[in-house]
């Protein structure tokens, strides 16, 4: 093997969780070059993986919304770049039309994708001359690693290696001067949100343990929710609007991340931060994060997890430090 193309186009969390495929391949095939095709919006996320040799990207989402001529020209240019290499194998671990079209345009005699029943869009099957086995009974993230291994003839038997290096530059916020918890309350769908009152209770508990609370946001609606939470938590900080890179930098600087099923919480897990992910309307078993003593997911996908369950999860990844007070009671401190 000299060069392999991985295709995972979107979204932030899915791409982050797919990154260990790169380390798996390079472990088995020393010296192999690994390229990655993604949407332009997520190209930087892939670049932060030290094992990726070339990132191929196009403004696919942007063109779908705007139909701008400039985006179409950028897509055409990206096709030329895509076809500049001949690959020993193409691994499409996305499985929808847009990823299949990328696979079909790329140059290789071996192009692997999911079985029809496992595809996100069944019509994507036209692009593949090789198939992964039936979807394994495990979470989606390990499943991607297993599928790539099936295509290239190796077994996955190591913990995931995300191998991420976030660039540090003058855009980063000043490092916090005390232990900080970053609270990702926002998510892509209304039904996936956790109640503001629950966030208030958890944040006040974390404050009592000595943690400073920071609330990031990415839209006007998310900022409004952050302000609602801050009203319940005196001293909580509503951050300015940050770029994806600045959020990643901040995640590296904080002590704890707690959030809903959203891409930045997956990024926190990949950056090896103590992480709690809260699921309300999606499956923690299939889409959650887990690493003993460091990352845990809660929720069954059908009910709102209670505050106590969230606090217990936080205790599992970021235990309070306790000390006896003068009157003999136990006080918590970070």
TrEMBL record:
Gene3D superfamilies per UniProt: Glycogen Phosphorylase B
EC nos: 2.4.99.23
Enzyme class at the top of the EC tree: transferase
Pathway where it operates: Bacterial outer membrane biogenesis; LPS core biosynthesis
Membrane topology: Peripheral membrane protein
GO biological process: lipopolysaccharide core region biosynthetic process
InterPro entries: Glyco_trans_9, LipoPS_heptosylTferase-I, LPS_LOS_Heptosyltrfase
GO MF annotations in UniProt: ADP-heptose-lipopolysaccharide heptosyltransferase activity
Keyword Cell inner membrane carried by entry: yes
Pfam families membership: Glyco_transf_9
Localization per Swiss-Prot or TrEMBL: Cell inner membrane
Domain of life, source organism: Bacteria
Family, similarity comment: Belongs to the glycosyltransferase 9 family.
Annotated protein name in UniProt: Lipopolysaccharide heptosyltransferase 1
Taxonomic source organism: Paraburkholderia dinghuensis
Gene behind the chain: waaC
């Amino acid at each position: 093997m000299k060069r392999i193309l991985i295709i995972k186009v979107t979204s932030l969390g899915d791409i982050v969780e797919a990154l260990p495929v790169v380390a798996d391949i390079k472990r088995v095939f020393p010296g192999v070059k690994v390229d990655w095709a993604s949407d332009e919006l997520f190209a930087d996320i892939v670049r932060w993986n030290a094992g990726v040799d070339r990132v191929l990207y196009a403004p696919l989402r942007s063109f779908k919304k705007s139909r701008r001529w400039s985006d179409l020209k950028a897509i055409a240019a990206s096709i030329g770049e895509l076809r500049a290499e001949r690959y020993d194998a193409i691994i499409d671990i996305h499985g929808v039309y847009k990823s299949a079209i990328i696979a079909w345009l790329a140059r290789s005699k071996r192009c692997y994708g999911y079985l029809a029943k496992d595809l996100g869009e069944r019509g994507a099957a036209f692009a593949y001359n090789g198939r992964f086995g039936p979807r394994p009974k495990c979470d989606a993230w390990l499943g991607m690693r297993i599928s790539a291994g099936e295509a290239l003839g190796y077994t996955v038997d190591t913990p995931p290696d995300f191998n991420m290096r976030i660039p540090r530059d003058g855009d980063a916020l000043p490092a916090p001067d005390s232990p900080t918890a970053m609270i990702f309350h926002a998510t892509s769908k209304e039904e996936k949100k956790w109640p503001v009152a629950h966030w208030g209770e958890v944040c006040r508990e974390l404050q009592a343990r000595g943690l400073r609370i920071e609330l990031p946001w990415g839209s006007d609606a998310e900022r409004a929710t952050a302000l609602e939470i801050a009203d319940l938590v005196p001293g909580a900080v509503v951050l300015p609007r940050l770029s994806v890179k600045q959020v990643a930098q901040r995640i590296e600087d904080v002590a704890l991340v707690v959030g809903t099923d959203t891409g930045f919480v997956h990024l926190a897990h990949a950056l090896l931060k103590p992480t709690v992910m809260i699921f309300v309307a999606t499956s923690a078993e299939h889409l959650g994060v887990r690493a003993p003593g460091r990352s845990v997911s809660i929720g069954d996908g059908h009910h709102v997890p209670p505050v106590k369950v969230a606090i217990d999860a936080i205790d599992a990844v970021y235990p309070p430090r306790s000390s006896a007070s003068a009157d003999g009671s136990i006080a918590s401190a970070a």
